[in-house]
Amino acid sequence: MKKVVLSLALVAFIGLSFTSCRDTKEKSEDKIEDAMNEAGDALEDAGDAIEDAVEDAADASGEALEDAKDAANDAANSIEEGAKEMADEVKDATNEAVEGAKKAGSDAVENVKKAGADAVESAKKAGNDAVDKAADKVKID
């Protein structure tokens, strides 16, 4: 996804550099740079969200292991009942960790999609502005 966003930004940048006038070139470059910065920030946010999800999953797994240990001590009194409780707690903790990772991953994908769409939209607007200014200049000349 990162390559797609950066490729789109690069194509837009190259297209604008060939069609823009000297005055509009600087403005277009600033807009494209801003769009690329926004996309980069969104990717960093996505990476942070994934890191947080992994850390949360690790914490949840650690808690699940502690719960499993406690359940094993209880199993000494009643092996069948303790084993069932331990399995349920591990299953619930694992399901919670998986759901957290899924949500974080989904949120990260949505953030990247939005950033990519914003970057493309900014590049389109910058390109259209440059074309309009160039057309106006040609009309005036």
Textual characterization of the structure:
With 141 residues, the protein is mainly α. The protein has one domain (2-19, 29-123). It is 95% helix and 0% strand. The protein has helices at residues 2-19, 22-75, 79-140. The mean pLDDT is 75. Residues 35-58 have a biased composition (Acidic residues).
Secondary-structure map:
Layout: H1 2-19, H2 22-75, H3 79-140
Helix pairs in contact: 1-2, 1-3, 2-3
List keywords for this structure.
single chain; 141 residues; mainly alpha; 3 helices; Late embryogenesis abundant protein
Strand/helix succession: HHH
The total domain count is 1
The value of Rg in angstroms is 26 Å
Using DSSP, what is the number of strands? 0
Biased composition (Basic and acidic residues): 23-34, 81-141
Organism: Winogradskyella epiphytica
Region (Disordered): 23-141
Biased composition (Acidic residues): 35-58
Describe the structure concisely.
The protein is mostly helical and 141 residues long. Helices cover 95% and strands 0% of the residues. The chain has one domain.
